[in-house]
Amino acid sequence: MDAQYVASIDQGTASSRCLVFDHRARIVSVAQKEHRHYFPRPGWVEHDPQEIWRNVRTVVAEALEKAKLSPRDLSAVGITNQRETTVLWDRATGAPVHNAINWEDTRTDMLCRQLARDHGQDRFRETTGLPASTYFSGPKVRWLLDHIPGLRKRADEGEVLFGTMDSWLMWNLCGRHVTDVTNASRTLLMDLETLDWDDELLDVLGIPAAMLPEIRPSSEFYGEASGPLDGVPIGSVLGDQHAALVGQTCFKPGEAKCTYGTGSFLLLNTGDRPIVSSSGLLTTLGYQLGSARPTYALEGSIAVTGALVQWFRDNVGLIGSAPEIETLALTVEDNGGCYFVPAFSGLFAPHWRSDARGVIAGLTGYINKGHLARAVLEATAWQTREVVEAMNADSGSGLSELRVDGGMTANNLLMQFLAGVLDVPVMRPIVAETVSLGAAYAAGLAVGFWPDTDSLKANWHKAAEWLPMMDPVLRERGYRKWKKAVARAVDWVDEDD
Known about the structure:
Layout: E1 5-11, E2 15-21, E3 27-34, E4 46-47, H1 49-66, E5 74-81, E6 86-90, E7 100-101, H2 109-117, H3 125-128, H4 137-147, H5 151-156, E8 160-164, H6 165-174, E9 178-180, H7 181-184, E10 190-191, E11 196-197, H8 199-205, E12 214-216, E13 219-224, E14 233-239, H9 240-247, E15 256-260, E16 264-271, E17 282-287, E18 295-302, H10 306-316, H11 324-329, E19 339-341, E20 359-361, H12 369-395, E21 402-405, H13 412-422, E22 426-429, H14 434-447, H15 453-457, E23 462-466, H16 472-489
């Protein structure tokens, strides 16, 4: 019998998952397992790569078992991953030389300031589309080379390999040291035009070329997997937000999606030419399907959205579960004048201020826990508004609608507020797991499971829509207050912190 399913491995910031989809893009099976976060110092965030690899094997086996499937029932598997998180491992043994440094980690702040000191934060933007920021992988590699005794010598001799989480999984699944254009575009090391590592950038950052994986398209036959997916073709690799762009079928220039998870990421398809942002956005690869020209995107990266709800639950304890925040927020009519800027790891787009830290502004004796819950939710919408304004300025046209996905889209209060703040319709598809779906789509295209992108568009159906209903006067007053709160969050970190 011909294989009737495609699987995706979604290695995320908080957990690893495996989803199985049928030909109509319906979810057949899901398995998920969280991994531990390590916080060795303030601002440092790490994962154990070995734990993540064990979890991936576990969730793959569980997803197949739940659906009573075997590897031979799968036409292909796709990989999607948390981006920028950095792993170095021994070429001979496959053992990591250090914990993975997470994308939220800020230990490279001083290095990034040094890189920007003489030439400005945008010294790499023309080549890479990115500012000099702690967000990206290249500075994390440099930090490891500088701080682990003997590592630079081993790296120079080709004994140590670098990869983001996709490369780590590919090495363990099929023994290839590769990445795709989307993940490579997040390293601060790849030329957007040539789609190859840039020798000048490697020299500036002091990173040996021998460490780097081969860069490939996002959708192609990478090889056959081993272990619980023994013999299954690996057909795609995409960074998570790029996978969501594919999963939302944003294949035309001007189409945009925003994924609301730990952080939130808004991507706008800009076609086959990169647009260099003058408004604080990232120019990035959208995806590359086989031998076709790559599709580029503008991205607005927001570091903390869902993570703020988790913080409110775990560190403050005013709610027992994430969904409870909506119930608590509905106990009041508005935020009472309270605004929460969650700059836990600095501010990403469009500010790029690693010296910022979180603030709660507008506190009075009137404020209660309901107002705080409102402020927590509204922070996600106001941050999205900042990104959309920057995107409209760079693209030269206004956003007409926003496709959304991710866990936070289950919060109706937030989605309605978001539509009001943006003054555009906000739409969620029936299959909200668009990151996993996008990886499955790209893998399925690589092996002919789906014939073309038109067949993928036919699978997209709207499940919910929120229309703007906010008073324009209230919208602009709220946004003015938000910007005042942001101004109070920046320039907090001192040289001796």
